[in-house]
Design goal:
Elements: H1 9-14, H2 16-21, H3 23-33, H4 35-40, E1 42-43, E2 56-57, H5 65-70, H6 76-85, E3 97-102, H7 104-108, H8 114-118, H9 124-132, E4 135-137, H10 142-150, E5 154-156, E6 162-168, E7 171-174, E8 177-185, E9 188-193
Parallel strand pairs: 3-9
Antiparallel strand pairs: 1-2, 3-4, 5-6, 6-7, 7-8, 8-9
Helix pairs in contact: 6-9
């Protein structure tokens, strides 16, 4: 599959949830904390919306979470959802951040028409909420998730609620989604999962 500390970072981690609901605030913070990078790298502008630090093209540094998912053929639906929600700048923040990334077949398994409906502009808020449920402040690779499962702990998401971490033999599940793999990113981890983690009814 072709996917995927500084004390100051703690402040950013604690404000992940508010960043997801405040695009302008995050954009400003990203630009301020990455002034040198912006000054020395080329920037591409999107005609539809500004993606903040996600606009910066950096072919020297290790790939971040956004770049890893964009480069994965198994995550094209997730990338389309992130772009429709206009939250690219969130998942390129310095982190550390963990994104539980559903593969394309996870979206295909949703009821017919669900993805198409969510991608419509009028449903942006709902899409942002669903995607935010897949983002967790901190580094949670498979090894760490196994520790959390063993201790019976949950992880705190950007939607201000919790996802249960469980183990069944060698398999790890997060919010009911099976973990399929992991990829280290420059700003955290991409943890590949087989289901879309939806809000509880």
């Amino acid at each position: 599959m072709s996917i995927m500390k500084k004390p100051v970072i703690l402040v950013m981690i604690l404000t992940v949830a508010s960043l997801l609901s405040s695009c302008n605030k995050t954009e400003n913070n990203s630009k301020e904390s990455n002034t040198d990078a912006v000054a020395t790298t080329d920037v591409q502008k999107d005609d539809s919306h500004s993606k903040g630090q996600a606009d910066v093209i950096d072919e020297v540094s290790d790939p971040n979470i956004l770049q890893i998912t964009v480069g994965s053929k198994d995550h094209s639906t997730l990338v389309a959802a992130v772009q429709a929600a206009e939250i690219e700048h969130i998942i390129v923040n310095a982190g550390p951040l963990t994104v539980f990334a559903p593969i394309n077949s996870a979206f295909d398994a949703l009821p017919a028409g669900t993805v198409e409906t969510l991608l419509k502009p009028e449903n942006k808020a709902k899409l942002v909420d669903i995607l935010s449920r897949h983002a967790v402040a901190g580094s949670y690779n498979i090894k760490q998730l196994k520790k959390e499962a063993k201790k019976g702990r949950k992880v705190y998401t950007a939607t201000l609620d919790y996802l249960e971490v469980t183990a069944e033999g060698d398999d790890i599940f997060i919010g009911g989604a099976k973990v399929l793999g992991e990829v280290k990113a420059s700003n955290g981890w991409v943890v590949v999962v087989d289901k879309v983690i939806l809000p509880k009814e």
